[in-house]
Amino acid sequence: MAKYTINHTCGHEVTIQLYGKHTERDRKIAWLETQPCRHCENEAANKAAAERAEEAGLPALEGTEKQVAWATTIRDRALSQIAEGCQPSELFRTLKSRGFSNAYAAELGITSAETFTEFCQKVEKFAREIDVAAWWIDYRAGAADQAIEVALDNLAPRK
């Protein structure tokens, strides 16, 4: 166990504590010195997500500056997962966990491949409209699944 000073590619200097064999420590130090520090890495990810959100015309998130920056990245990742998840196998996994049946599919208006695509578009549109940063942060571990759940609750016909 020893502390090492890492000079990252972004110019920041960070002191870290490493454990393990000297060869593993040396390999880790060499790798870390080819990377930006976590702060700069997070800032770059937040900036890229904010640019994609602006390009996509997503609503601005409500919250503190730090919440908005973090939640924008979470939302970006979740919307990508939802787009990927709107493949039949992925959405059916989510629907099955809710007791999916042909009757439930009919209630949701899913009767063919075309209506499935339309339904996926509704789910994605609903998720895109969530504009509270705290919501994205609270559900960060499973934001895509939670957004689909909320959309299903709101898109299912009321009895």
Any overview of this molecule?
- The chain is mainly alpha-helical and 159 residues long.
- The protein folds into two domains: 2-32, no CATH class; 59-155, no CATH class.
- It has helices at residues 22-32, 38-56, 65-85, 88-97, 102-107, 113-128, 133-138, 143-155, and strands spanning 2-7, 13-18.
- The protein has a two-stranded antiparallel ribbon with strand order 1-2.
- A hairpin with a 5-residue loop joins strand 1 and strand 2 (13-18).
- Helix 2 (38-56) crosses helix 3 (65-85), helix 3 (65-85) crosses helix 8 (143-155) and helix 6 (113-128) packs across helix 8 (143-155).
- The chain is elongated, with a radius of gyration of 21 Å.
- The model has no long low-confidence stretch (mean pLDDT 84).
Number of helices: 8
Give the overall form: elongated
Number of strands: 2
Amino- and carboxy-terminal Cα gap:
62 Å
Largest sheet: 2 strands, antiparallel
Give the strand order, joined by hyphens, for the main sheet: 1-2
Give the radius of gyration: 21 Å
Give the amount of beta strand, in percent: 5-15%
The structural class is: mainly alpha
As residue ranges, the low-confidence spans are: none
Mean pLDDT reading: 84
Integer count of domains = 2
